[in-house]
């Protein structure tokens, strides 16, 4: 059984992110300096990672990639990186390292195993990477985004390693502009794809039904109900 005790470690430096944190189905919420996450011990990964992406996060600095390490914040201990060894799966970042380049400490935090999920290489380097690049473009275009991302964690998933790290069949991203005027969701099957990104748009309502997560519970009901039923890719392209 999941630990249902509500745990928060170190409120994020950006208080506006804390205001927009999703609900947790596990009760195990933690925060590093530049992102927060809800950890699922049953699946040995985060059900969501939430962060703000702004212009100053997207620098041209080139940091040396550190080794993946277990997250010292997770009370039940996050999965050991050795679960991924010879598994056939990449250590797929949820909050991309390229989204945390304002400082080496922020960049380094993305290499905790609480921020990774098993991903097929041609997915990780293909359609998922294309979506991450599009999100960075929109973060610049719209002067900042709130981002929530993760794998859809449910019963009877394939697992890898001694700790049985679940392999999601779908990954999602939910985006909200900082001015609260636009919201969009993406639900991407965990497989290689050359389809255009607009094929993977989904309403946030639909992603909430699949995950059991309320993504922006502190939005007013009127705004939340209006935005969460939209999935208009073209609206974001203008």
What would you say the CATH architecture is? Answer: 3-Layer(aba) Sandwich
Gross morphology is globular
Helical run tally: 7
Q: How would you spell out the order of helices and strands?
A: HEEEEHEHHEEEEEEHHH
**Radius of gyration based on Cα positions:** 16 Å
The tally of strands reads 11
Write the topology of this structure:
Blueprint: H1 15-19, E1 29-31, E2 36-40, E3 45-53, E4 90-93, H2 104-109, E5 116-119, H3 121-124, H4 127-141, E6 145-151, E7 159-160, E8 165-166, E9 170-177, E10 183-189, E11 201-202, H5 204-211, H6 221-227, H7 233-237
Antiparallel strand pairs: 1-2, 2-3, 3-6, 4-5, 6-9, 7-8, 9-10, 10-11
Describe the 3D structure.
Helix content is 21%, strand content 22%. With 238 residues, it is α+β, with helices and mostly antiparallel strands. It has a seven-stranded antiparallel β-sheet. The protein starts with 14 loop residues before the first helix and ends with a helix.
In short:
With 238 residues, the chain is of the alpha+beta class. 21% of the residues lie in helices and 22% in strands. The chain is built from seven helices and eleven strands.
State the main characteristics.
238 residues; alpha+beta; Extracellular Endonuclease, Chain A; two-stranded antiparallel sheet; 11 strands
């Amino acid at each position: 059984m999941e630990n249902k005790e509500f745990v928060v470690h170190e409120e994020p430096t950006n208080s506006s992110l804390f205001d927009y944190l999703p609900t947790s189905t596990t009760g195990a919420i933690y925060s590093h300096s530049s992102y927060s996450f809800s950890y699922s011990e049953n699946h040995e990964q985060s059900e969501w990672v939430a962060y703000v992406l702004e212009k100053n996060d997207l620098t041209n600095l080139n940091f040396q990639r550190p080794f993946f390490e277990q997250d010292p914040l997770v009370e039940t201990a996050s999965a050991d990186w050795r679960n991924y060894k010879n598994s056939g799966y990449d250590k797929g970042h949820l909050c991309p390292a390229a989204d945390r380049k304002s400082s080496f400490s922020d960049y380094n935090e993305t290499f905790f195993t609480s921020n990774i999920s098993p991903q097929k290489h041609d997915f990780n380097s293909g359609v998922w990477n294309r979506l991450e690049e599009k999100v960075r473009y929109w973060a610049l275009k719209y002067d900042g985004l709130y981002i929530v991302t993760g794998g859809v964690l449910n019963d009877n998933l394939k697992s890898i390693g001694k700790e049985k790290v679940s392999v999601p069949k779908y990954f999602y991203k939910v985006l909200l502009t900082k001015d609260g005027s636009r919201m969009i969701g993406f639900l991407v099957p965990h497989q290689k794809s050359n389809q255009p990104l607009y094929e993977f748009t989904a309403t946030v309502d639909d992603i909430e039904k699949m995950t059991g997560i309320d993504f922006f519970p502190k939005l007013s009901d009127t705004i939340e109900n209006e935005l969460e039923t939209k999935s208009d890719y073209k609206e974001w392209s203008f």
